[in-house]
Design brief:
alpha+beta; 24 strands; 30% helix; four-stranded mixed β-sheet; homodimer; Creatine Amidinohydrolase; elongated; 8 helices; Creatine Amidinohydrolase, Chain A, domain 1
Chain lengths: 369, 369
């Protein structure tokens, strides 16, 4: 087995966190040789790493060079590899060019391997428990947000008001973030988009929420401690949905049911996505560019969720491989038309031998009074 | 000028956010040729990018290939470069190997340039305003945290209690996070470490807070909207500090004053750090390994702050270049001894022609009653 090399921080880089099991904000070195895992690190993190890191050994950079500084990192790296008699390494796809250059300049061969840790695609019981915990926080949070929209009043100008203030996307997002914190989670972004904004799948939403308009709430907290994500979307209308909105909602719900029914170990991911596309086409929901805007269903049906919010496997045209037992994936068809708005419904499921187990218990409904 | 190429998401990658001015969670392509800035993107983000991105033009991947998927990204990338008649690109140091491989396989030359956007080291008025705003939130937040510690009671076992509950690091961090949110900021991590924990500079802290022990509070919120960070540390003791703690605190305060006095445009960063090291040595605060643990002063004196919490320039032995006007850097000497704990005091300053402007107004004191 070619030795595995990662050089990254473990706060942003999930492979490094998966490998080292400790959160460190600056780049450090992880080397796995014959199954033995070592991290190499500077003075600042050395004591903590020795206590917390889930590796076989922790080595201080000072073993390799005196007077450490950023200019000397290249020397340290080469000394580490020499010391281990390594002439070839495998690295993850996101391995940084500045480090690759040091290796290439020193005749160390590099093989890019993606996915780097195949196991990350297959969640064990402990990981599913962690994801389920975050999903619990996510559902309690969504309930709080929806309760507020439920209690809000409809003004004459159709804006919603809550506690005598105009109810905004920003207010709901702050409520969501506070609930996440109470549950030991956080989120850098939340989507609470209304009306035309919701016709852009990744528009975070701003300004007043309106009655009788589609409101997409897509929230994806991350545990502060376990670092696992969950991901869920619901679409609601406060007041009355138009017949067009109802038709869109029913189509998306139908598409999701279809996809949920197709998912099981051994089924090719791209074919599930194709089925969803066909379903929308058959229902006359067209996808394509119109007036310079992409409309219809123009994102994947789903993606893996774990230490990254978007990870393998995807349920999209690009993934021609079969789903496998213990994949954790979202199932989130959506339809988007600028004149009406967007509808997306997203659950998180574990792929099983015979189908899938839905980790999302939150009810699905369009209108709230 | 060789064209600039970035392929990254803009949520984690600050160069990409700096270049494109829009938050996008998945990798996309930024190309700058003869000063003209273009981003290339998939259907999912296309509408939003056209509205929000701060570039000259936004091109849909579908211009280059039909039936987009992850397998075809390589073809899209090569077609983009062919279309622009580009045979050589400059890329940032963190450019991903998986993309570099595509370029190399197609005989496109790659030059790694670091720093990629030199301007990021020099903050303009607008950026300093944004950082100052975040620092305002940071100081209001720290005041709330310190007020709670101030109001807490000292139990017989020396644990602090607040509102009849044992006061913990976790509780204070939740308070901090909620205050950040109220100010439109967030933080993935906060350090509130007490006693022995505080002798590890990056120990986040857990469990009860104790009277008569050093408590290090190091907080670094990021604006949810502007994405700029601030960074500040204070060290306090609830109750009575021991003479050793006081000596350490005075030394760190003295070292910070020394560094703040030395900082000005034209002064070499490593020499400032060296002065701080010498100052501690002269005061008989030794640095080095003892009983298998690094002790004393073993991190840099400071680092740049902006769209990244750790960015250039560093004030450390590795940076032999002079500081320049409009650098924004932390000044944060610290001392750490396992038997006593840690002391760190951190301000954020703008380098000026004649010295520096301190953006941190928060008072410095050790004991609170």
């Amino acid at each position: 087995m070619t030795p595995k090399l990662i050089i990254a921080d473990s706060e942003k880089d999930s492979n490094m966190f998966y490998a080292a099991g400790i959160l460190i904000p600056d780049d450090f070195v992880y080397l796995e040789k014959n199954g033995r895992k070592t991290i190499y690190i500077d003075d600042l993190e050395y004591n903590r790493a020795k206590k917390e890191a889930k590796v076989d050994s922790v080595v201080n950079y000072s073993k390799y060079i005196k007077g450490i500084n950023r200019d000397t990192f290249g020397k340290i790296l080469i000394n580490i590899l020499k010391d281990n008699r390594i002439k070839k390494v495998t690295v993850p796809g996101n391995f940084k060019m500045k480090y690759a250059k040091i290796l290439m300049d020193n005749k160390i061969k590099i093989e890019v391997v993606e996915p780097f840790f195949k196991k990350r695609e297959f969640k064990n019981k402990n990981e599913i428990k962690k994801i389920t915990e975050v999903q619990g926080v996510n559902e309690r949070t969504l309930q709080v947000a929806i309760n507020i929209i439920g209690k809000s009043k409809i003004r004459k100008d159709k804006k919603l008001s809550y506690q005598n203030k105009i109810l905004t996307s920003e207010f709901i997002k702050e409520v969501i973030d506070v609930e996440f914190l109470k549950g030991g989670c956080f989120s850098e972004f939340d989507i609470v988009s209304c009306g035309k904004d919701s016709s852009d799948p990744h528009n975070f939403g701003t300004g007043p929420l309106f009655a009788n308009q589609l409101i997409v709430i897509d929230i994806f907290p991350r545990s502060k401690t376990t670092k696992y994500f969950s991901d869920m979307t619901r679409t609601i209308v406060k007041g009355k949905a138009s017949p067009e909105m109802k038709k869109m909602y029913d189509a998306v719900l139908g598409a999701q049911k279809l996809a949920l029914g197709k998912i099981k170990a051994g089924v090719r991911a791209d074919l599930i996505h194709k089925k969803v596309q066909d379903y929308f086409e058959n229902k006359r929901f067209k996808t394509g560019e119109k007036d310079g805007k992409i409309q219809g269903f123009f994102h994947g049906t789903g993606h893996g969720v774990g230490l990254d919010i978007h990870e393998l496997p995807n349920i999209s045209l690009g993934n021609k491989k079969p789903l496998k037992i213990s994949n954790v994936v979202t199932v989130e068809p959506g339809l988007y038309y600028p004149e009406i708005g967007g509808v997306r419904i997203e659950d998180l499921v574990v792929v099983t031998k015979s189908g899938c187990k839905n980790l999302t218990k939150f009810p699905k409904f369009l209108e709230i009074k």
